[in-house]
Structures are given as C-alpha cells and as structure tokens.
Design brief:
This protein is mainly α. It is 88% helix and 0% strand. The protein has a domain of 74 residues. α3 runs antiparallel to α4. It is extended and about 55 Å long.
Length: 107
C-alpha cells in the first residue's frame, strides 16, 4: 500500500471519530443559525482589522479593543458558538494525538 493510500486510510479513520462527527455537526448548526453566523463573521472582520493595524504599526484604540471584547463576550454567550468551540477543541486534541503518534514512530 502506498503512502498516499495510507494517508487516505488515516483520513477515513479520523472522519469516523465522534470528535469529527461532532465538529461537522456543530459547523452545520452554525451555518443554520443566522445570529451565530453573523457574529462569527463580524468577529473575524474585527480580528483581521486589528491584526492589520498591528502589522502596520498603528496603535489600537481603546474603543476598538472594547468592540472586539464585546463581540467576543457575545460569541461566548451564544450556545451554538460555544458548542462549535468545544467541538473544535476536542477535534484538535484528536489531531494532536495523531500527530504525536506519527512523530513517535518517526524518531
């Protein structure tokens, strides 16, 4: 079996985990929740704007920071988004375990 085939086999095994299924389900629920979708979109735009300002050496105003923190608080209060965050964290842990297993076998 080739390396590419083994990688596909691993991907299928990952897709079969509860963590992956929970993640895709949570992502779908976000897409179906207009308030959650809009909040994520706005939060990402503000994050990008703040990062661009920092990258250009511009000072970020207290109002910009407050606006970001407000959006972040709203995101944490949104059940759909908190479920997505939990699912992302659980999936990330699984992927870290997979990477650790691969690394251990390499060295």
């Amino acid at each position: 079996m080739s390396l590419s085939e083994k990688a596909k086999e691993l991907a299928l095994a990952v897709k079969d985990t509860e963590e992956y299924k929970n993640l895709t389900s949570a992502q779908t629920r976000v897409k179906l929740d207009p308030a959650a979708s809009q909040l994520i979109e706005e939060l990402q735009k503000v994050q990008e704007s703040l990062q661009a300002s920092q990258g250009e050496g511009k000072e970020i105003s207290p109002d910009q920071i407050q606006h970001y923190q407000t959006l972040e608080s709203q995101a944490h209060a949104n059940l759909t988004l908190t479920n997505l965050l939990k699912a992302q964290q659980a999936f990330s842990e699984i992927m870290n375990q997979v990477n650790q297993s691969i690394t251990q076998e390499l060295f």
